[in-house]
Amino acid sequence: MFITLSAMTFTACKKDNDAGLEGTWKVAKIEYSFYENEVLRSSEVYYPNDTDNERLLAFQGNQWTSFYADEAIEYREEDTYVYSQGTLKLYDEEELQQEITVDALTDRNLVISTEESYENEGVSEREVTVYTYNRQ
Questions:
Q1: Residues whose CB falls within 8 Å of the CB of residue 121, separated by 6 or more in sequence, listed in order
Q2: Is 73 helix (H, G, I), strand (E, B) or coil?
Q3: Could you tell me which residues are beta bridge partners of residue 83?
């Protein structure tokens, strides 16, 4: 009896940790922050609802696509991705289109962030956007 319970516990733990990108993800929350010289100047949190036509992300095999909720999923051969060590690299025709930090990945949730830094008239500016997706 002890062996049976141990096997069941091990299987459940393995399933919980076996999250992958494969599937379709819908945006649940978007957090935007704007910094000047590393001082937070503004931030917004947006919660899309079912009437919003938000973009979704979908991953199948080594292909990815981004589309609106009312469109059919369409994968293009040239749109591939690589996910390794917390970084998601999206390619379009073998050219790196975007590099995204994966902050969290579970069975149900995907949290990714993008950051853009630049100089504007001698002021260091940085925009950080964090997207929380739910698996569909």
A1: none
A2: coil
A3: 88
Q: Tell me how long the chain is.
A: 136
Letter for the amino acid at 43? S
What distance in Å separates the CA atoms of residue 119 and residue 135, rounded to the nearest whole number?
37
Task: Write the DSSP symbol of residue 93.
Answer: T
- Rounded Cα–Cα distance for residues 29 and 26 (Å): 9
Helix (H) and strand (E) counts in the chain? 1, 9
Nearest alpha-carbon partner for 103 in 132, 82, 65, 64: 132
Ramachandran angles phi, psi of 122, nearest 5°? 80, 0
In sequence order, what are the residues at sequence separation of 6 or more whose Cβ sits closer than 8 angstroms to the Cβ of residue 17?
Answer: none
Q: CB count, 10 Å around CB of 59?
A: 20
Q: Give the Å distances, CA to CA, from 86 to 36, 50, 108, 128, 134.
A: 27, 29, 17, 17, 18
pLDDT in tens, 70-127: 777 788 887 899 998 899 998 987 788 888 999 999 999 999 999 999 999 999 999 9
CA 67 and chain centroid, separation: 14
